[in-house]
Amino acid sequence: MALSSIKGERERGFLDGQFLIAMPGMPDGNFARSVVYICAHSPAGAMGFIINRAQAVTFADILLHLELIDRNDAIMLPEHARHFPIQCGGPVEQSRGFVLHSDDYLSDSSIPVSDDISLTATLDIVRAISDGRGPNRATMLLGYAGWGAGQLELEIANNGWLNCPASEELIFDRSLDNKYERALSLMGINPAMLSMDAGHA
Fold first, then answer.
1. Could you tell me the pLDDT band of residue 200, with boundaries at 50, 70 and 90?
2. What gap in Å lies between CA 161 and CA 176, rounded to an integer?
3. Which terminus of the chain, N or C, has fewer Cβ atoms within 10 Å?
4. pLDDT in tens, 35-65
C-alpha cells in the first residue's frame, strides 16, 4: 500500500490508529517482536511503521546525507537535534525517511493519521527539527511496513498479530528495549502467556 493512499479524505479502516504486536510464532524475521503503528488500512492494503527497532544512523548522519549541513555544522548541532530518535520503520523503501509527530507542527505536506498524530515525509520538517522549530513530539523512521489487499487480514487470522488501540506515549517513547512488553501490557498480556500456536476463541 503506497503512502499516497493515506492522503486526502478517506474512510478510516478498522486497524487505523492501532498497534499490531507480533506473536511469538511470527514467520517473517523482519517483524519478530515488533510493534507496528498502523497509519492506513483499507481494502487495498495497509501501511504502518515499526516503532521499537533501533536504527544505526543518527539525525546528524541524515542531515549530512541530505546536504543540509556540513561536517563542521554537525559538531555544533543543538542537543535536541543530536539526540533526535531515528528508527527502522520497516522493510519497504528503507532509504526513505518519514517523521511521525504530534499535530502541533503542520506543513502543506503533513498528513493527519489520527486526531493527534501526523506524518510528514518532506525536507521541511527535517529542517524545522534541526532549527528547533519542529513538533513537540516526533520520531523519524527509515522505511515502512506495507501489506497488499487482504494480506494483513490473513496474517491476523493465522495468528501472526495481536492488535489493540495505539498509545501515543508508547509511539514517541525513546526507550525501545522493552516497548514490545509494554505494548502487550496495554492488552493485559504477559509475554510468557503467549503460545506460538495459540488458537482464537
1. very low
2. 19
3. C
4. 999 999 999 999 999 999 999 888 888 888 8
**Residue 150 to residues 26, 68, 85, 144: CA-CA distances in angstroms?**
17, 40, 32, 18
Cell of 162: 495481536
Could you state, in order of their start, the residue ranges of all structural domains in the chain?
3-193
- The reported pTM is 0.87
CATH fold for the domain made of 3-193:
VC0467-like (3.40.1740)
Of 86, 88, 127, nearest to 105 by C-alpha is 127
Residue type present at position 10: R
The owner of cell 533501533 is: 54
Q: Of the candidates 22, 141, 139, 127, which has an alpha carbon nearest to the alpha carbon of residue 84? A: 139
Running DSSP on this structure, what letter comes out for residue 129?
H
